[in-house]
Amino acid sequence: MATPANAGSGLEAGPLSSNMRDAGSQGGVRPSGPTPDSSRAPAPSTVTPVPRPAHVWPGLALACAGSIAFSGKAIIVKLAYRHGVDAVTLIMYRMLFALPLFLGIAWWAGRGRPPLTARDWRVVAALGFTGYYLASFLDFAGLAYVTASLERLVLYLNPTLVLLLGRVLFRRRVAPAQLAALGVSYAGVLLVFGHELHFTGGHVALGAALVFGSAVSYAVYLVFSGEEVQRLGSLRLTGLASTFACLFCIAQFLLAKPLAAAAVAPAVLWLSLLNATACTVAPVLMVMMAIERVGATVAAQTGMVGPISTILMGVLILGEPFTPWIAAGTACVLAGVWLLARARPA
Question: Which of 26, 80, 202, 301 lies 20 to 30 A from 89 at CA?
Answer without folding.
Answer: 202
